[in-house]
TrEMBL record:
Originating species: Ancylostoma duodenale
Annotated GO MF terms: nucleic acid binding
Gene Ontology biological process: DNA integration
Entry protein name: Integrase core domain protein
Domain (Integrase catalytic) ranges: 243-429
Entries under SUPFAM superfamilies matching the protein: Ribonuclease H-like
One of the Pfam families matching this protein, by short name: Integrase_H2C2
Length: 429
């Protein structure tokens, strides 16, 4: 059709009735005598007459743009494909891949030339090429439905240009680098749109990386303006972390180690550090457990209760040691309740045990981050020396004192700066 238009012919499309459809003779069959005089050779006879005499049902129309230059359909009133049903990017890509596969089966040769599809499309699983095509379909449809001349005018500084598939890409200064083409010229996606939200959530769900890490992964394929401001919003903090309470009323608990200690001049052993952090004041309590047994854990708790008081709630991992420790404490409390003289005393000391979601260690980040600080100071303090149990216990307590004097807020360098707030201030003032 393009070559006919270049030759000066006007190409039109219209509807004709079945009796004038020359394609039907190939399916219904013709005898030899009818074929020689059939209109299949020259088309319907009314086409030779003036267009004013054609049937009104023909309704000829002129195609502005040659078919095949863009495979992606245009949707004027839809921002995305099944946005309500497909809340995840991968589901949307699979939904977009299915029509692409069916169209490929219908016109294999045509689409193979356009999209370089040369794999076996009869298999049930989607290939990487089909997923890549689906991402182009989603981005192209997003651009057609969301971008208008006014928005494009405000994005002139991004150097947006269409590629061979009609997709707007951001042509950056890295065009001559050895990066892959998708990173040198990423596809443009408008900020604060449905598609940008799915892309960000998909990249962030793979290990929950930091803001900069997530942005770096996204820009390997997509360019989203003001990306940093669209980083997934953090959920609200638990009430036990934001409501006023006494120090160590709500704590988080975890083990770290193993830590190597010297038993004799020739033998070494292992022990484990235990960190208990106040959820509100960020105070920390450090102790050393001889092993991972439930008995050692109960001794750590007893020492903590004696020095800091009985907490209202304890948050920890789903470790078998912690779970069994809770069971033992519940059994002890159940036996003590039978004594009426002390039942009232322990009724106010009930501890609420909370466990983070399995395989979600970031939920314990409140104490995991401080474990890193403890290990760093411990390494700088001891170096390569193998301490005894007493030396390690002393070093751990000194590290506790050091971290409890760390600043909780930004330290101003001005002469009129206010007093720095530290965790230890909640105990001493």
């Amino acid at each position: 059709m393009t070559s006919l238009e270049k030759s000066g012919y006007q190409v039109q499309f219209g509807h004709i009735s079945s009796e004038w459809n020359p394609a039907d003779c190939a399916t219904r069959g013709l005898d030899k005598q009818s074929l020689s005089n059939h209109f299949w050779w020259n088309g319907p006879s009314f086409l030779r007459d003036s267009s004013e005499t054609w049937e009104k049902t023909y309704k000829a129309v002129t195609i502005e743009k040659a078919l095949g230059q863009g495979f992606i359909p245009q949707y004027a009133d839809q921002e995305h494909v099944s946005s309500e049903k497909n809340s995840r990017l991968r589901l949307s890509l699979h939904s977009s891949s299915c029509p692409t596969r069916e169209a490929t089966k219908i016109s294999r040769m045509r689409l193979s030339r356009l999209w370089c599809i040369d794999h076996n499309i009869d298999s049930n699983s989607l290939s990487g090429t089909e997923i890549a095509i689906a991402s182009k379909v989603l981005v192209k449809q997003h651009q057609l439905s969301c971008l208008n001349p006014q928005i494009m005018k405000s994005l002139h500084h991004l150097n947006l240009r269409e590629d061979e598939d009609g997709i707007l890409r951001c042509y950056r200064r890295m065009g001559n680098s050895a990066l892959k083409s998708s990173a040198k010229c990423p596809m443009f996606v408008l900020q604060k749109s449905w598609l940008s939200q799915l892309i960000i959530e998909d990249c962030h769900s793979k290990g929950h990386p930091s803001t900069s890490h997530t942005m770096a992964n996204i820009r390997q394929y997509y360019w989203i303006p003001k990306l940093r401001s669209q980083y997934p919003e953090q959920s609200g903090l638990p009430s036990r972390r934001v409501q006023r309470s006494r120090p160590f009323a709500h704590v988080g608990l975890d083990y770290f180690g193993p830590l190597t200690i010297s038993l004799t001049s020739d033998t070494t052993g292992k022990c484990y550090g235990c960190i208990i952090i106040c959820m509100v004041t960020r105070l920390i309590h450090l102790d050393v457990a001889t092993d991972l047994s439930t008995t050692a854990f109960l001794h750590v708790l007893r020492r903590f209760f004696a020095r800091r008081g009985v907490p209202v709630s304890i948050t920890n991992d789903n470790s078998p040691t912690f779970t069994l420790g809770e069971t033992v404490l519940e059994d002890c409390r159940r036996n003590i309740r039978s004594d009426p003289t002390i039942s009232r005393m322990i009724s106010d000391r009930e501890i609420e045990w909370k466990y983070i979601t399995p395989y979600a260690p970031w939920q314990g980040g409140v104490y995991e981050r401080l474990i890193r600080s403890v290990k760093l100071i411990l390494y700088k303090t001891l170096g390569k020396k193998t301490p005894s149990y007493e030396e390690l216990s002393t070093a751990v307590i000194e590290i506790e004192a050091m971290l409890n004097t760390r600043p909780l807020l930004y330290v101003d360098s001005g002469p009129n700066a206010e007093q720095i707030l530290r965790p230890i201030d909640f105990l001493q003032n």
